[in-house]
């Protein structure tokens, strides 16, 4: 049973990561901001390999920031 719930979480995180990447691509922000957001998404993707639940929480925070228009400073 736990394996099934882990698989469902993995599928949900994968779908949300795909959505997040699409949203970042479509943002009308300076390139430095887009690059910073892309790096955050790559870090979350890498973290998902070792800590799926933690990666899901990080992705939730990032998506909330995007929803509320809070963007990081660009390089």
How would you characterize the overall build of this protein?
The chain is mainly α. It has 3 helices and no strands. The protein has helices at residues 2-26, 31-48, 52-67. The longest helix is centred in the N-terminal third of the chain and has 25 residues, at 2-26. The termini are far apart.
Q: Sheet bearing the most strands, described?
A: none
Radius of gyration: 13 Å
Question: What is the overall pLDDT average?
Answer: 91
Number of H- or I-type helical stretches: 3
What share of residues are in beta strands? Answer: under 5%
Total strand segments: 0
Structural class assignment:
mainly alpha
Shape: elongated
Helix content: over 70%
- Low-confidence stretches are none
Run of helices and strands = HHH
Summarize this structure briefly.
The protein is mostly helical and 75 residues long. The chain has helices at residues 2-26, 31-48, 52-67.
Notable traits:
0% strand; 75 residues; mainly alpha
Helix and strand arrangement:
Layout: H1 2-26, H2 31-48, H3 52-67
